[in-house]
Amino acid sequence: MKKLITPLLALCIFLSACTSGKIDPSDVTYESTTAVTVTAPEQSSHRDPAVIVRELVEAYSSGDEDSEMRTAGLLDELRQADPLSASRWERILVLWKTADNDLVINPDVLPDGLPDTGELCLVVLGFQLNSDGTMREELLERLCVALASAEKYPNAYIACTGGPTASQDRSVTEAGSMAQWLIENGVDPDRIIIEDQSLTTAQNALFTNRILADSYPEIRYLAIISSDYHISTGTLLFGAQPILASEDSDTDTLTVISNAAYVTSRPPIQTSFQASALLDIAGDSDGAIEMFYG
């Protein structure tokens, strides 16, 4: 079987033969040859999209002078590695910026003009219970806002969300106590949806949105009800979860369209906490823990 040799190897053999006297150069006829090139299988240069997302969230939340440039670069990298994920996170970043910088917070009651139909759901975010299971003053104030809003929109659903946070009585949940209070104050029980397993705002969003998507397909719009410092985070997380859960980049089952707040003197929740919660919703629990404690 004939073997193909490269022109360089052929030249070396020829010169060796000439110098040893075995070949007279004047007797040689040259013929053009082409080297054989072997191409290795193409290797993907893309990094794990989950790693890129973690760095993207961290870069945006840092807020330093290089944040915008690093965020843009990581988003471009994510587009190459996973276009669908990039499209989702591009929308989430817009939502994040709007929630933290441009959101109008409505004190005491929901504003006019929302749909007074079963398409609207008022989401009342819980607050840690006292050790004996009773509700703290801040949670009661949030419920007053929820009641006023429920009376203003009598055809809307009300979702109470929050799990067992009483250290001495784990049978009592935030959501269960909230629902009972609303019913005692005149709200029709058929309007109330209970999510009583969550222990964090990220879980509030995950578990509540799953219940709504699975059991209440008529609901399309959400209005977040909480304390003023918590509204932007609630809006971000309840808005991001449907984006991440959607089958494509443009179709969401639920959209946050408004809010109402119990007014306090506390500052807004830090961006680093929001970043940790976003990673938690995205399924990166290790990144969420690292971000939270970091």
What do you see in this structure?
By secondary structure, the chain is an alpha/beta fold. It has a domain at about 120-270: Rossmann fold. It is built from ten helices and five strands, in the order ααααβαβαβαβαβαα. Strands 3-2-1-4-5 form a five-stranded parallel β-sheet. Helix 3 (about 65-80) packs antiparallel against helix 4 (about 85-100) and helix 8 runs parallel beside helix 9 (about 270-280). The relative contact order is 0.13.
Q: Uncertain spans, ≥5 residues at pLDDT below 50?
A: 1-43
CATH topology of the domain at 120-269: Rossmann fold
Q: Helix fraction?
A: 40-55%
Number of beta strands: 5
Structural class: alpha/beta
Helix tally equals 10
What's the main sheet like? 5 strands, parallel
Sheet with most strands: strand arrangement: 3-2-1-4-5
